[in-house]
# Entry
Amino acid sequence: MPPQDVAETESPLKPELPKWQRPEKTKHDLPWADIQIIDLSTFDEPSGKEKLAAELRDAIHHTGFFSVVGTGISSREVQRQYDIAQAFFALPHAEKAKPEYKCDFAQGNYFGYREIYEATVRGTAVRNNVELWNHAKFTERYAGEARHPCFEDFKGEIEEFSRKALDVALKLLELCALILELPPSFFAAQHRYDSPSDDHLRYMSYRPRSAADDAAVDNTWTRAHTDFGTLTLLWSQNVAGLQIKTKSSSSSSDTGSDRDHGGEWRYVPPVDTDKAGEGQGTGVICNVGDALDFWSASYLKSTTHRVVRPPPDQLGANRLGLFYFVRPGDEAVIEPAAASPLLRRLGLVKSDSSEEEKGQESQEEGKDGEAKREKVTGSRYVRARVKDYHSHGDYADRTGQVFQVGNLKIVDEAR
# Structure
């Protein structure tokens, strides 16, 4: 094949693959969200973490989404993951959709292949237009999870990228701990790569639908939702379509008030270089998930977002995405961080109860049949959430429906 069609590689990256071509940015004037940029290259500088924590707090309270640069992951590494993803999605459908490769949603297992056109949308005849592959962690614990032979030659590269992605997330989690005035390792210790969790590196591809099909579902490609886990990292690509629900002017960002249902939809802009103008494709779009929302008593809120039909000048090809989803550790207990001085001062959590008070609460809660203080672990929460959201044949309008496991509750905004 011609050299220009082959991904730039450095030994021992083999075999060579057709190079994914980054789409051009849209020329349409869209209502863009004001997304703040967090530059992690200053993380280890004197007072760097404290400055970044203040910036991150403002970014989360402003939109809930933010851009991350200075990650230490090169443009070559990002490009290579897109090349591998493109090669997988180019396989014949029958080679991707064998039963042993598919996500087992009935068990809340999101590892492996999610099949394109597997379900309808909002009770119409329109089918979902996304397919994806989720790579489980490359540890002994997950050796039995779905592994497609297409990825065998790239296993070392995929694992290395996965570990580097989590390293980026761990820095952000350390900053979140500083925001809440907790020990720096408070969150990071519950999200180690070699500890069990449902973390995954995702390759995702949307195929364009006809204008008529999209119109039948309000041009929605992925319905409005908040992310299940702790943090989501999305390597920036230029196809517009990701939108966030901005906060209404009446919402409070400083006290962790109830989830805001106002605001308007705005597009998330691409960020493809660091502040020096280098590193094309290395910028990351990041957002808080519901697990971190729970841990912070909604001081660090998850933000509702969706994917819609791209503008006309970007409808000519599939929309390819590269993600890392950070899930809480399997044994991590998800509950508001009572040890946070900040959350206590704001009245969002109470100080740890005495043993006598805990005993009285347990007796009272037992009368209700379901203890309000029931502990929910990461594995239990994540698996229940995935099953609730995906184990069905239609992605319906779920606005206002309640998901609850133990003392964790989400009011759905999916439509």
